[in-house]
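Hi P.,

Sorry for the delay on this. The queue was packed all week, but I finally got your sequence through. Input first:
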Amino acid sequence: MTTTEQQEDYVDFYELLQIDRAAEPEGIQRVYRVLAARYHPDNKETGDIERFLRIKDAYHVLSDPSRRKEYDAAFEAKKQAPIPIFLTKEFTEGIDGESNRRMGVLCLLYTKRRQSPITPSMSVLDLENAMFQPREHLVFTIWYLKAKRFIQSDDRSSLLITADGIDYLEASLPKQDTIHKLLKAAENGTSRSSGSKHFTTGWAEDRG
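Then the structure:
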């Protein structure tokens, strides 16, 4: 697999499994067993071969200390790049762009809280990097979300979503196709994938 293909097919294994990056091996194994059983192709109710293979790859990498260390190093470089969907005009132009940025912040904090319930916050710098927005352009967005009590600051001035923010986000999904795609990408671990190809089993095998 070429470097370009790896970039296009990148899957965030932690995001995919909805676990914290500091998750212990026992926790990773426990989550894997549940998800593997849920999406195994023999499961007539919820079987999904593509998702099952992604989950299997995630487990093989994250359960191996040396592979996990290598993967984590690659992720640190990857997370400095913006999430591709935030580079589209839906998030950069006019009043609609501002409205979508608010939903984007909520999506990022929603995903963070689901993935890392013990450390559910993101710094403003994290949001800047993920959304490719200068801090100055996020000031109004953050003020509005705080005023509506959809987000709040923790004792380190990082941001986290509130229960009201979760309710608002989930209620807004039916009319927010772009945001729904962003959350779906996070659920599949592909929010940072820059291409349209679907990840199958290449990463773990090629890195082995």
